[in-house]
Amino acid sequence: TMVYITGNDVKSKKPNPELFLRAAQGIEVPPQNCVVIEDAPNGIQAAKSAGCQCIAVTNSTTADKLSQADRIVSTLTEISIADLMALLP
Question: CA 33 to CA 8: how far, in whole Å?
Fold first, then answer.
């Protein structure tokens, strides 16, 4: 199942978790079983507030500003399916 939720689909923007909660609901997966990939502090805060795991990519800001993420990488090529699975309960 695939869903697309954009900022136009929600009333409250990040750091409010509404976008991620609606996405999880749309794919019928509990938020705690979701991994969000983000590149901004507000997005990470929204993901964590939703109860999701979060991987941060340093393509728009420095790692120190993304420290709330569960993992920080410099490129998406550093992430494997095993890495994603390891973050899930």
Answer: 25
H/E stretch holding 37 reads strand 35-38
Identify whether the C-beta of residue 24 lies closer than 8 Å to the C-beta of residue 43.
no
Predicted TM-score (pTM) above 0.85? yes
Q: Are 50 and 21 in contact (CB under 8 A)?
A: yes
CA distances from 29 to 12, 21, 26 (A): 21, 10, 8
- List the chain pLDDT tens, one digit each, 89 residues: 789 999 999 999 999 999 999 999 999 999 999 999 999 999 999 999 999 999 999 999 999 999 999 999 999 999 999 999 999 99
Tokens of 64: 């120190």
Element (H, E) at 76: none
Beta bridge partners of 73: 57
